[in-house]
Amino acid sequence: MSDQTATLEELKQSVAAFAEERDWIQYHSLKNLAMSISIEAGELMERFQWVDNAASNALVGDAAARLAIEDELADVLIYSLQLANRAEIDLSGSIKRKMAINAEKYPIEKVRGRSDKYDWS
Ligand SMILES: [Mg+2]
Asked: What confidence tens digit (pLDDT) does each residue in 90-117 have?
């Protein structure tokens, strides 16, 4: 399985089967899953804590650090897929819709090459 071949539906089914086989769906309230996404995001951030930008970029070149980062990033996505399953959210549609909102909110001609907020309204 790779990003080039896997579909979101396959990944959603895989994480659903994992939870169902363990009878864990009963614990998958939307609250618990949303909290779990945040907790795992915190664990991902922890991997970069106390290092400067250059060192943080270099971490992915270190095999052990890279694996730890991959694991935490996977945890974030796994819980995101579980939440999408529980709430019956079509992630492809949601991403497409939100990217359209983002494109309207951040027009290229106004934001290209800028990280500051161009409009506080
Ligand atoms: Mg984790």
From this structure: 999 999 999 999 999 999 999 999 988 7
Burial (CB count within 10 angstroms: exposed 0-12, middle 13-18, buried 19+), residue 111: middle
Q: What residues are neighbours of ligand 1 (ion), with CB under 5 Å?
A: 40, 43, 72, 75
pTM comes to: 0.92
Residue-range domains of the chain with CATH: 8-89 (1.10.287.1080)
**Ligand 1 centroid, distance to 109 Cα (angstroms):** 39
Q: How far away, in angstroms, is 45 Cα from ligand 1 center? A: 11
CA distance 82 to 60: 26
Query: What is the residue whose two structure tokens read 């945890």?
Result: 75
Residue 82 near residue 19 (C-beta atoms within 8 A): yes
Distance CA 113, CA 43 (A): 30
